[in-house]
Amino acid sequence: MSDAVSAPWLMAAPVVLPLAAGLISVVLPRGRAELAVGVGALILIASSALLQTVTASGTQFMAVGGWTPPLGIGWRLDFIAALFLTVTALICLVVALFARGYLRRALPAVDERFWPPFLLLWAALAALYLSADLFNLYVALELLTLAAVMLVTLEGNGAALTGAMRYLLVALAGSAAYLLGVAFLYQGAGTLDLAQAAAGGAVPALAVALMTAGLMAKGALFPLHGWLPPAHAAAPAPGSALLSGLVVKGAFYVLLRLWFEAEPIAGTTRQILGLLGVLAIGWGALLALRQARLKLVVAYSTVAQLGYLLLIFPLAEGAWRTAALSGGLYLALSHSMAKGAMFLSAGLVLYAAGHDRIAELRGLASRAPMTLFAFALAGVTLMGLPPSGGFIAKWQLLTAALGGGQWPWAVVLLAGSLLTAGYTFRAVASTFGSAPAQRDFRTPPRSLEWLALGLALAALGIGFLAADWLPRLEAAFR
Amino acid sequence: MSGNLPLAILLSSLLPGLAIFFLSEERHQLRVALNISGALLKVGLVAAALFGVWQGQHYEMSLPLVPGYPFLLRLDPLALLFVSLSAVLWLLTTIYAIGYLEESPHRSRFFGFFSLCVSATVGIAMAGNLVTLFIFYELLTLATYPLIVHRETPQAIRAGRIYLAHALGGGMVLLAGIAWLHTVAGPTEFAAAGGALDHVDAERRTDLLIAFALLVAGFGVKAALVPLHSWLPVAMVAPAPVSALLHAVAVVKAGVFGIARTVYDVFGPALAHDLGGTEILAGVAGATILWGSIQALRQDDLKRRLAYSTVSQLSYIVLGVSLFGPVATVGGLVHLVHQGVMKVTLFFGAGNLAETLGLHRVSELDGVGRRMPWTMGAFTLAALGMMSVPPLAGFVSEWHLGLGALEAGAPWALAVLLVSSLLNAAYFLPVLHRVWFRAPAGPWQEQMPRMRLETRLSLLVPPLATAALVVLFGLAAGSSLSPLAWVGLISAQEYPG
Amino acid sequence: MSATLWIGVALLLPLAAALVVLGRPRPAPVGLVPLVPLPALGAALLPPGSTVELPFLLLGTQLGLDAAAPLFLLLTALVWSAAGLFLAAGKRPNRRYLFCWFAALTGNLGLVVALDPITFYAFFALLTFAAYGLIAVGTEESRRAGRLYLVLALIGEAAILAGFLLLAAGAAGGMALAALYFGLGVKHGVLPVHVWLPVAHGTAPTASSAVLSGAIVKAGLLGWLRFFETGMPLPDVAGAVTAAGLAAAVLGAVLGLTQRKPKMLLGYSTVSQMGLATAAFGSAFAGSWALLPPLVGLLAFHHALVKGALFLGLGTAPTGAGYVRMGLLGLLALSLAAFPGSGGALVKAWLGEVGVDGRWLTFSSMVTALLMVRFIQLAREPQPHAQPAGGAFGLLAVTGLAGPWLLLWQVNSGSAVLVGKAVAPAGVLPLLAAGVVAAIAWGAAQRSRLTLPLLPPGDIVNLLPRLPPLPRDERGTVVEQHRLRVRTRRLAAWERRLRSLPVTGLLLFGLLLILAATLR
């Protein structure tokens, strides 16, 4: 552990750069997309460098502005944070590139309003990953929520506004609960630093319960997911990709840190959380299966996939704790990419067909094969088929379940994959066949298809990094 | 130790396949060139590998994947058996498919996935541990789906759905089995005659059993064990070359091969037998053999009849694997090859009838032998082989299976085989009778015109080649170059001493 | 070396002929058909014990001559050659028929020289399938006969395979014996699987009937000779086999008497004669096995040529008044009925020598004589599809009548006693008795206006339940799917249930449970 940071600006870059770019983009409307892309490339480089730093010299701490915790803004960069930063940068960069081409063609009205909240969201995410204490986490979460709500409203129609409003309400309620929890914790433990609170050993149960519930609301974890599908479906496709891929994971990230760095509560709660996860998986998937619109299918899929993350709670016990946790993180990462790719392809479908009603997509497969291929490939990761990152995650969770003697969770994991396959291929299969004569599909731009496909391939490809990442993720929780 | 050869064998179909995806529909020549050169290259590489392994060489490639499970490709004799079958039949099926799909849409997609399918198959064959195998197993599932729904008709889409539901479900069960085994025994590799699990405590035998059951059930879906078989007859809506590949090499064989790996190289025949798992497996295989044959009797659609026949014939292999003893092993594994060449011939024949004359039903085949003597000659040979008529390939399998059944003390299995042969006769002979002994009833010209081929050359050469193999594998079974000899080598490894 | 050459040529020539017929669309020169079996005659003259080893072929092939092979080669080649001559003299056969002809010939010759079970089985199967093409020639009647033949033959094939597998597994017990007895016995019509034989022999074209009844039925006998082993409980079944053989000998003839068509009648006569051979086996099971090969060889030879000649003679159109034809047919009939001094008498005498009950032999001679009287009566009527082919008929008839005497010293050195018995005038008595019975019966039949056939051909096969009439489309062809649908409705329902996804899922789960629960 080193108190000094080898490159403080490097660590600040993922937060500062998008924030600055966001501000500029409010002021200077021209070239915003190019600015975002350029900044994104820089951040990706910086994040990769940070990943190298963490690998080389371990966890990094930084007191922003020179104040140390518990008062100041304390940043901490461990392997998990660096990894999330990198993956977020990758996804955001792809989304930026995609949005640059997509919005101009499909939603010119949205184009100019998209960039500021997007860049703000990016900065908030980075801050979230880096925050070392609970209050800073709260601030980052609030910023994230605000930016996300703005993204939902972009299209400005009725559905978007009601969706955004419900989202905002639930998120605010969640924030309130979370903040209350933080207050209780501070009162009980006298610190806002997670590590310090855990070391003190006195984490009030009520505080944890409040924070957990709040985060679950923000993270759309079952049964608090009701806001998610309309909101995510209402946003423009690049926005949806960010919302489903990254924003909900933000809350999950905090939840994970809260529970497993502090190692608090005993068995029953964990089992209950796991049970909720099971319900989420079933519920989300079944609803996804019966949706008539593609974006809603993808949104419900997110509900179901978040359920898997809840399974970590009962599984991360005893000897298999690290396996379950690393699996959960892997799942979060690969789901981010895959869901991003899925929403991007859904956006292309929307562009090509002018709508996303599944029943009326027959013939699209011939017109936009690559889009659908990207969609299916992303589905493969969601299903957890090898060699995708989803597979690695599922493998870890499975071994944890079976090794810990908790095989019912394994059944859920596997059955969930089949449900995922069900709704993915239902959507894909609906596009086969020859189009009726009166239907006119546009051909999506090749470059955008490549972006969606690239993201899907990346989700598939991180499976090959497991030999490198898994041991280090496990070590982070040891 | 050389790792390049397994990789090269894998890439020889994977790379052309990926390249083909990006070709436009009109680049017919280039696509054909890519396909054929890839297939020829693969055959050449496999020949080199066969020679090398015969000489005692080891070919192995390992990359880190999941902790404990490297991405491991290895060419052992069992792997090579399957790889050679795939390589040769891929070449022929590709030639056939090029002729079959002339002028039909989505050819780049088709051939891309076709190559992917074969890559997955050889990957399954060469996989050195269960996780690597699983990767290719699922890839195969996905790569096959677009081939089944290729025609994009409602039936095709329905078939694709049913196929996926089964195959993915089986995959999940398989994954559960692999994970269970992992938690019991830690990371394992395939090893001839097993042995990897011998260190497991006696009190954890139940866990081993569960893992065995899960693995076999998972593979059993693709191997079309009753009652997990229903996807196979439905999937025959796919174009004939796909059916040929599906039924002879790729999908169903992957399942059967997986079962063979499980029994021989994960558990080892002795342990699997000790646990008692193989006995039940043999029972299931026996039931499948009969059920498939009985169902085949009632199909009028030729390809459906062939599909049920596949259900039945596949379990010959499973039966051979599950009966304890080297002779049954020989019978089962050699049928892996023999069934492949026979069934591929039959599907080529069915495809030629459909493509050239538009005939799909058995009841339409009256006198068609006069119009397409070469095709139907090949078909006849393969059908006779399926009935285990000597000296064709099927007989060699049946002989060893029967002998193995007696050796393993399971005369019931012999009875099953014999009854199945009769049932095979009962559903194939009426077809042959119609083809050769009935007066033509169709609208086609009764005698084919002089000096003209009965169908396109690319549709004619593959079935003739495979039919020649059906005869050759049977007639020359005793020679040291036959599949039988190679399988003898494997059997000696799996049952040392 | 010469063994390889002769056996090779004998087998490859008909095989090549088959392939030529297959590959050449032009009509084949049928004049060459009778020549194709001839190299086998050369092979028959090879020294006994000659073998050719071909380890790479099949699972290790061994060809050669054992004690029984030369006679069987001889009779096979002669019958096929004469029948070929008959074929060449008639209407040009179609390509399919010719292909099947040569394929069956290959199988028939091959199984005679195949010494190991697998090769024997391979040629046997070739013969079985190819013979279908000799029986089913296009008419509805022949098709039905072919189907009956094929069903029984295939069940026989399966039994043979089981028997050979048991032998190979070192389990030459009662099961193996039963499997081989019935499996091989299908070919020469052991009771009760004889039903196909008269039907097929009776409906096939003349040339086919000649080779079927002459040569092909002998394949089973040869198989018995070659593959019954000392490990089997042969003495235990000796009585039963003898009884079955004698029953077939008598019953075959009696059933033949109920027939109206002379060819059917000859088919039943074959069942009867092969019954005698079966009885010989039964006796040998109890006594000395060593005596059997020459006896069965001679019996087979005599029956093959005589029966073949009878079929050919029946199908030959009479020239002039037809005295020569009827005379030869009469002589052949007498020989079959064991008239003293005939080849048949020689065989019967020898049968008595090895222990077959003389009274039964006498009785069988009488019934056979009765049958032959009836045959001669029917043969005088003009036959359908008769053709001028006196040469083939005459050749085979003369060889058949004289052959057994010429061969006797070749196969049995101590045969003076036999000859004495064979020419004993007492042998006339059963024939005379038969004549009397025939005369009475003829008179009775004149008054009662009895209509024949009394029994439909195939006797007990007609007791099987009839399947419902088949739906036909407007052109009168059977609608296949309907037939199948009707008969497999319940099966389909089960399959539907199995195919439904929930059931599949449940079953998968159940399978898992069962596997897990029952695993030790």
Features:
heterotrimer; A: 478 residues; mainly alpha; two-stranded antiparallel sheet; 19 helices; 76% helix; C: 520 residues; two-stranded antiparallel ribbon; 22 helices
In short:
Chain B is mainly alpha-helical and about 500 residues long. Helix content of chain B is about 70%, strand content about 5%. A two-stranded antiparallel ribbon of chain B has the order 1-2.
Q: Which helices and strands appear, and what pairs or packs with what?
A:
The complex is a heterotrimer of chains A (478), B (497) and C (520).
Chain A: H1 8-27, H2 32-57, E1 60-64, E2 73-77, H3 79-106, H4 108-130, H5 134-153, H6 158-189, H7 194-200, H8 205-218, H9 228-234, H10 237-262, H11 267-289, H12 294-315, H13 321-353, H14 364-367, H15 369-383, H16 389-403, H17 407-429, H18 446-461, H19 466-476
Antiparallel strand pairs in A: 1-2
Chain B: H1 4-21, H2 28-54, E1 59-66, E2 69-75, H3 77-100, H4 107-126, H5 130-148, H6 154-185, H7 205-222, H8 231-234, H9 240-248, H10 251-267, H11 269-275, H12 277-297, H13 302-322, H14 326-357, H15 368-371, H16 373-386, H17 393-407, H18 411-437, H19 457-475, H20 483-494
Antiparallel strand pairs in B: 1-2
Helix pairs in contact in B: 1-2, 1-4, 2-3, 3-4, 3-9, 3-14, 3-19, 4-5, 5-6, 5-10, 6-7, 7-10, 9-14, 10-11, 10-13, 12-13, 12-18, 13-14, 13-18, 14-16, 14-17, 14-19, 14-20, 16-18, 16-19, 17-18, 17-19
Chain C: H1 2-23, H2 39-44, E1 51-54, E2 61-64, H3 69-89, H4 95-113, H5 117-135, H6 140-168, H7 174-188, H8 196-203, H9 206-216, H10 218-227, H11 234-257, H12 262-286, H13 292-315, H14 323-336, H15 343-353, H16 358-379, H17 390-411, H18 416-423, H19 428-448, H20 480-487, H21 489-499, H22 501-518
Antiparallel strand pairs in C: 1-2
Helix pairs in contact in C: 1-4, 3-4, 3-9, 3-13, 3-17, 4-5, 5-6, 5-9, 6-7, 6-8, 7-10, 8-9, 8-12, 9-13, 10-13, 11-12, 11-16, 12-13, 12-16, 13-14, 13-15, 13-17, 14-16, 14-17, 15-17, 15-18, 16-19
